[in-house]
Design goal:
Layout: H1 8-24, H2 32-55, H3 60-86, H4 92-114
Helix pairs in contact: 1-2, 1-4, 2-3, 3-4
């Protein structure tokens, strides 16, 4: 594995983050410093934590620790997606598509946590 950019979880979390960025442009201005900021931050942090984990992969404990941070941020993103839908800022279809991608990202992160050796950890 040559680069973190080769990781499927990196690609999918980057896509999710950019899609969230696009849909949140339509959120009400009063949400700028709350929901909009929070969902953008958590989705980006999921991606960034996976990059940091990959960089620390020679230290298995650090690798897993950063991946658990990524998982936490991804879970937070799911919570903000729920709020976005409940507030009628996104449609049910958009919610289901973005949440489904987030759930898939969570599975990929868990696979990495369970199989650090497959990613050069250790």
């Amino acid at each position: 594995m040559g680069s973190y950019k080769d990781l499927l979880v990196y690609k999918k979390s980057f896509t999710l983050s950019m899609e969230i960025f696009t849909v949140t442009k339509q959120f009400p201005k009063e949400e700028t410093y709350s929901l909009t900021d929070q969902i953008r931050r958590s989705s980006r942090s999921t991606n960034i934590c996976t990059i940091e984990a990959y960089r620390k992969r020679i230290y298995p404990n650090h690798f897993v620790s950063k991946l658990t941070d990524a998982d936490m941020e991804n879970s937070e993103t799911q919570g903000w997606l729920e709020f976005s839908h409940a507030c009628d800022y996104i449609s049910k279809e958009v919610y289901e598509r973005l949440n489904s991608l987030s759930v898939e990202i969570g599975r990929l992160i868990q696979y990495m946590i369970d199989n650090p050796g497959k990613f050069g950890a250790g």
